[in-house]
Amino acid sequence: MTQALALDEGLVPADQRARVLDALVNGFQPFGGGPHFSGGSIGLAPIVRALMDGRRDDVLGQFLHEDTQPSYGLFLAPTTANPRA
Predict the structure, then answer these.
(1) CB neighbour burial string for 33-55, b if at least 16 within 10 angstroms, e if fewer
(2) Whole-angstrom distance, CA of residue 36 vs CA of residue 39
(3) Torsion of CA 39, 45, 48, 52, to 10 degrees
(4) Per-residue model confidence (pLDDT) at position 68
């Protein structure tokens, strides 16, 4: 998470950005079947921007489609109380 904040705020020198982005991606821990990141509501935006700026939308796609707990995909999945339209 700290890597995402540093990348997002432009605090990482250009020649170190790839290394810090790799550290961010490698820091995502698999919990019970898939990759998950922990950034909470506040950290989500910097993580998304850091991944997009680093052209790692592939990683972002994995996280958003992951539907094991805990994940944003599970959070966004349809339920009987919130069915998909």
Answers:
(1) ebebbebeeebeebbbebbeebe
(2) 10
(3) -150
(4) 75
CA-wise closest residue to 67 among 19, 25, 33 = 33
Q: What is the DSSP letter of 33?
A: S
pLDDT at 15: 97
Interatomic CA distance for residues 43 and 80, integer angstroms: 29
The residues, any chain, with a CB within 8 Å of residue 11's CB and separated by 6 or more, are none
Could you tell me which residues come within 8 angstroms of residue 44 by beta carbon, excluding any fewer than 6 positions away? 72
> pTM here?
0.76
Which phi and psi angles does 2 have, rounded to 5°? -65, -30
